[in-house]
Amino acid sequence: xxxxxxxxxxxxxxxxxxxxxxxxxxxxxxxxxxxxxxxxxxxxxxxxxxxxxxxxxxxxxxxxxxxxxxxxxxxxxxxxxxxxxxxxxxxxxxxxxxxxxxxxxxxxxxxxxxxxxxxxxxxxxxxxxxxxxxxxxxxxxxxxxxxxxxxxxxxxxxxxxxxxxxxxxxxxxxxxxxxxxxxxxxxxxxxxxxxxxxxxxxxxxxxxxxxxx
Length: 213
Ligand code: URA
What we know:
Elements: E1 2-5, H1 9-19, H2 25-43, E2 49-56, E3 59-66, E4 72-77, H3 84-90, E5 95-96, E6 98-103, E7 110-116, E8 125-129, E9 132-133, H4 137-148, E10 153-161, H5 163-172, E11 180-187, E12 190-191, E13 197-198, H6 204-209
Helix pairs in contact: 1-2, 2-3
The structure holds uracil.
């Protein structure tokens, strides 16, 4: 698994405002959107392209277009939805599939409660959007879901990651032949006993959309 922590002052600045408990939901949503676009730029470094002959007003040249099949962007409901627009700004012709996953707050185990994805993802590059790589359970389950359907290249974009989650994810995917990359804005200190990232930013879904329970 490849881990890329994006080290850029604009990323760090936006992340600091996101972390601040005084940042309100509208500002949190806007900054998430901007931050994801910056992360997406790094995350799509290996996106597949095909050569394309075109003619400029001055003459012919060979450029590139995104390859077929188009990349698949998969936000993990609910909090991953807050990352979708920021991602689609860079990849407007990507397709979008949805995966609803919830973690049991006592056992921290992840389960799937909804999905809208093609049955066959053979040959597809997939970009998973999940703001918090905490225990790694949700992300590991989402990656397995996609590779079981044939996805052959996975990149997860996370606002924050915890070292325990990255280690768990690596262990959970040790037998997976498909390449997996994680792109994040920061590697935080640790998880607390409730599975929250420390210092983190709190509950990403609640901060984006309010408390829904
Ligand atoms: N999910 C969140 O929203 N925040 C955390 O810190 C961990 C999991």
